[in-house]
Amino acid sequence: MSAALPSLAFAGIGLMGLPMCRRLLAAGYPLTVWNRNPEKCAALVEAGARQVATPAELCQQADVVMLCLADTAVVREVVFGTVGVAQGAAVGKLLVDLSSLEPTATREMAAQLLSETGMGWLDAPVSGGTAGAESGSLAIMIGGPATDVERVRPILLSLGQRVTHMGAVGAGQVTKACNQMIVACNALVIAEVVALAERSGVDASLIAEALAGGFADSRPLQILAPQMAESRFEPVKWHVRTLLKDLDTAVKFSREQGSATPISGLAAQLMRLHSGQGYQEKDPSTLVKLYRGQSPQD
């Protein structure tokens, strides 16, 4: 069965990349991996993956190269650097970027990769967090040519419950920016709600239960409100810096498009304030401390 499946490569073995790679291996895909910190690949190598020393080597054994990296600058370096993916690229191979990046930069990099090497680019950012990556229930929004999307759809369905083709290259990143605007603003309001309930003498741990099924209910409410109420900030499942980066991306892109995003702009300012107080690498559930007036040590 494994021999009939396309060979895959994956760069970025982090909070999301590691569980996604585990699922690809479990599905039987031959997998080559690379990470800036090579030690993070050890568990995958033990599970059957092949490790390489540079991103350029990823294309040697793979038909499809997948990325899950921190930001636009990192993706650009991993793809176009001196030992980047582009050095081993060829016509017929595909790059699938699962990272959350700037839409405009994505379109520019995709055009450059195609013109210089003939390798196609699909932007396929995901939503669902580490829990979704572990369970294979991610929501995947993808941009690129329809034929390329259908080529990788079976691979992506090993990672997610739904793959939605949003349009041309860059459309996936626009959709992810919209997703993060909703998530980040929701997280900030949930923190306000929990802090208000606490100050008013209401048991904040009951907020999520009380509102379940109502118009205010949401997955972020059910996940974040109990964590905030219980001051349960570990383990870190995602980072404040990630939400801040995505909000900045959304606000920048909205300016480029001439679209107003005042709520997301305010959310970015509040997220930057929280990040600057020592929470950059912390879980967004710590946003409640912003309204409690607590320090990272509290």
Automatic annotation (TrEMBL):
It comes from the Bacteria. Residues 8-167 form the 6-phosphogluconate dehydrogenase NADP-binding domain. Keywords: NAD, Oxidoreductase. It is an enzyme of class 1 (oxidoreductase). Its EC number is 1.1.1.60. The keyword NAD applies. Pfam families: NAD_binding_11, NAD_binding_2. The active site is at 176. The keyword Plastid does not apply. GO terms for molecular function: 2-hydroxy-3-oxopropionate reductase activity; NAD binding; NADP binding. Residues 170-291 form the 3-hydroxyisobutyrate dehydrogenase-like NAD-binding domain. This is 2-hydroxy-3-oxopropionate reductase.
